[in-house]
Amino acid sequence: MHIVVSGGSRGIGAAVVRRFSRRGNSVFFLYEKNDAAAQALAAETGAVPLRADVADGEAVRAAMERTGGADVLVCCAGIASYGLLSELPEAEWDRLFAVNVKGVYHCVRAALPHMLRRQSGSIVTVASMWGQTGGSCEACYSATKGAVIALTKALAKELGPSGIRVNCVSPGVIETDMLAPLSPETLASLREETPLGRLGAPEDAADAVAYLAEASFVTGQVLPVNGGFLI
């Protein structure tokens, strides 16, 4: 199968690339600017790196053309922002929506012609538990991830008759570079609030992505991967 992963050079996206590459698939991944990380992952896995900012529709379309079409599309690209909404610059708000929401739109639009021709395909989006419940001091990030969840459900209804499944993984607190702004005390508190007593690993989310990519009678679902943080 041809697997295309956006945001594939780091974090959950990189774990997804590794997971599908181990299974012998043809894997392509989009990344924005970290050439060193992308080349290292490509050397490790054999996956093909494609540089494209998901907020740029033309760049995404050109990258997708180089893949030959996606049988499975995984939308992992995302950015975060921490702080009070009253202090969030409008440009930062717009950038989060451009990457986290419009990026999914661009990737899905670019992948659909191939899937519609084949009348089959699987799309997996990556949201966040904050998109389900809202996170204090992460209002914009929460709003973008809530939008991804709503988009996933709507697309599942729209594309189901064409044999295309659309599902969402909703991670909790995952140990990636997105956590860098958080203090050790905050991380310890989040760990204590998680019933399983630990933070998640990128591989935990990748396991859920792999399941949804192949679960042939599952669509329109949001699969929480949060260690019981939200029950």
Outline the structure in words.
The chain has 231 residues and is α/β, with parallel strands linked by helices. It has one domain (2-225): Rossmann fold, CATH 3.40.50. The chain is 48% helix and 16% strand. The protein has helices at 11-22, 35-45, 57-67, 90-100, 102-118, 130-133, 139-159, 184-193, 202-214; strands at residues 2-6, 26-31, 48-51, 72-75, 121-126, 164-171, 222-225. Strands 3-2-1-4-5-6-7 form a seven-stranded parallel beta sheet, with helices on both faces. The radius of gyration is 17 Å and the shape is globular. It starts with a strand and ends in a 6-residue tail after the last strand.
Topology:
Layout lengths: L1 E5 L4 H12 L3 E6 L3 H11 L2 E4 L5 H11 L4 E4 L14 H11 L1 H17 L2 E6 L3 H4 L5 H21 L4 E8 L12 H10 L8 H13 L7 E4 L6
Parallel strand pairs: 1-2, 1-4, 2-3, 4-5, 5-6, 6-7
Helix pairs in contact: 1-9, 3-5, 4-7
Largest sheet at a glance? 7 strands, parallel
CATH architecture annotation name: 3-Layer(aba) Sandwich
Helix content: 40-55%
Relative strand content: 15-25%
Number of domains: 1
Got a strand count?
Answer: 7
Using only CA atoms, what is the Rg? 17 Å
Low-confidence region ranges = none
| Separation of the first and last Cα atoms | 35 Å
CATH topology: Rossmann fold
CATH class: Alpha Beta
Give the overall average pLDDT: 96
How large is the count of helical segments?
9
> Order of strands in the sheet with the most strands?
3-2-1-4-5-6-7
